[in-house]
Design brief:
Elements: E1 8-12, H1 24-35, E2 47-52, E3 67-71, H2 74-86, E4 91-93, E5 96-102, H3 106-113, H4 116-124, E6 130-132, E7 136-141, E8 144-148, H5 151-158, H6 162-183, H7 186-192
Antiparallel strand pairs: 1-3, 1-5, 2-3, 4-5, 6-7, 7-8
Helix pairs in contact: 4-6
Family: Belongs to the transposase 22 family.
GO molecular function: single-stranded RNA binding
GO cellular component, one term: ribonucleoprotein complex
């Protein structure tokens, strides 16, 4: 599913109906002109199509639907997202803060969000964490970059390193408890409760 989206950029935070005037494609060009004037792809970037994503109803957080822009070249998408990561200040559209991100499937986004607590703990301790495609975490530890496809592999690595275990114990232990609770059969829960 993500391979079909590999040229797409998701624009988050643009008010509804802004694209009605010039099209969703022009919104990306305006963002690039406003935030990255030296990027050098304004004339050569080819946008194939742009559209509003389908609405996901969340009563607690009503928000505008995201704009998805499909570029002709994956290289353009990577250049834009690299600039977004390197930019220290907020990305804006007509002065209002927005976000640009890769357009992943729901499953990939959910898997990537699963690393958020661990990512934050590592970032707070300056381990330079990164979420790699599709949903792997990597970080620098003792001068080397370590990468893990899932929390189980990370947990095995952490048990061999007491300092790292201390840093991640609060975010890894709840995962183990959740898994342990799910592993009980209904009969076990009844006898314990």
């Amino acid at each position: 599913m993500d391979s079909m989206r590999n040229k797409n950029i998701r624009i988050i935070g643009i008010p509804e109906n802004v694209e009605k005037e010039n099209g969703a494609e022009s919104v990306l060009n305006e963002i690039i002109e406003e935030n990255f004037p030296n990027l050098g792809i304004d004339g050569e970037m080819c946008v194939e199509e742009g559209f509003r994503s389908t609405r996901f109803v969340n009563v607690k957080r009503p928000a505008a639907r995201h704009i998805v822009v499909k570029l002709a070249k994956r290289k353009d998408k990577e250049r834009i997202l690299r600039e977004v990561r390197n930019k220290k200040k907020r990305i804006t559209y007509k002065g209002a803060p927005i976000r640009l991100s890769a357009n992943f499937s729901t499953e990939t986004l959910q898997a990537r969000r699963g690393w958020s607590d661990i990512f934050k703990a590592l970032k707070d301790k300056n381990f330079q964490p990164r979420i790699l495609y599709p949903a792997r975490i990597s970080f620098r530890y003792e001068g080397e970059i370590s990468s893990f496809p899932d929390k189980q592999k990370l947990g095995e690595f952490v048990t061999k390193s007491p300092p790292l275990q201390e840093i991640l114990k609060k975010v890894l232990i709840p995962e183990k408890r959740k898994k342990g609770e799910r592993g009980h059969s209904p009969q076990t829960r009844e006898t314990n409760g």
